[in-house]
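Chain A, query sequence.
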Amino acid sequence: MSKNKPYLNITLRIMKLKDGYGALPKLLRVRWMGQLTDGAFQSALASFVLFSPERQPDAVKAALAFTVVLLPYSLVGPYAGIFLDRFSRKRVVQIANLIRAFDLLVIALLILQGSTGLLLTFFVLIAFGVNRLILAGLSAGLPLLVNKEVLISANALAVTGGTIFVVIGGGVGIGLKNFLNTKTTGDSIDALLILVAAGGYFLAAIFASALGKKEIGPMQHEVSQEARGFGEMLEGFHILRKHGDALRGIFATGVQRGGITALTLIALLSERNTYNPPDDPDAGLRGFAYALTIAGIGIGLGAFAGPFGVAKFGRHKWMRISMLAPTLFLIFFGLFPTEFMMILTAFFVGGFGQSLKITNDALVQSKIADKFRGRIFAFYDVAVNGAIVSGAIIAALTLPSSGISLTMPWLIALSYLLAGLILLRKSKFSAYSNSTN
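Chain A, predicted structure.
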């Protein structure tokens, strides 16, 4: 485990770059602009699909919306390594952002026409599928820009900063919607917001042009010419078996993210149908945005605490603590399903979840050679997003339309408890602490 001092002069430590190049700020600018835009795009999409007066959501419809968003991650993920381990990741990221920008122009037109059918779903799938290439490429390239001893902090900055920008983007989108409500009505507001988002993705593509062709990899001597798609993803799984702690950490991260998805569905339904008048969807959207904002603050603080926890307890023990710590809040939320208790629970689940995620990202990045890193993250993405979809499906089968349930928060707590005690138990999880590339 690295002995770096957590967040002691964070700026200087993060900027301690390999070979003296200052590419990390350029990578962060691409990632954060894209994720700021993600938040605005997703808020407009949620407003159109789930928070329109004529569209009353139940648990199944909400879960279906989540599945539509997440399905491309599982379909594109196995093939991401084909591009990211063979071609310039800078070019892949740049072209993917341009594709996403043009795709949103089509989505804006469809929303302006009031389309809610398969055609809209198809183009939304493209938007989120392309996003998978971008985030996986930036994650795979990050270890080439910083020294290994600051990798946890670099992940905290990149991943958590991105998550916070998603929240900010969502807030900006909702704020613009409320402002435009006084100027115009109907689906034209959501279409206009998506046009703005298209401009954001175009700007991210411009930012990507500042990166060098091979600055975020892959390195020339590590480029493979074989292309096997799902076979490559399975190869990533077999590589990870040599690093059992990284593999167990990926599965634990999946469990944690699946629980967050279920909790998000609880928040969406309860804010839409219980905590606010069902005939006032704008109030429900504002309440949901407020809950996400508080969770986003928890995510930021959790990332900040991550390197401290790793330095004090060690990487493996801190991940176990992060997995187990939120269970008590989930139990109390099941017993007292108030809006305050839901937001408090979201704060701690988001915070400890982000701490787990950035620590495990650094664990995976530090142990895998760059020539394999694209396919490793392809497996990582598919495994985690499969768990997220599973969490949405289980929530849909369990939750009433009100969103109020004793069962669901306790199921999340039980899954976290089992993951912490079985997947991350010391005798197995820490046994691989000295494994290398």
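The two ends are 15 Å apart (CA to CA). The chain has a mean pLDDT of 82.
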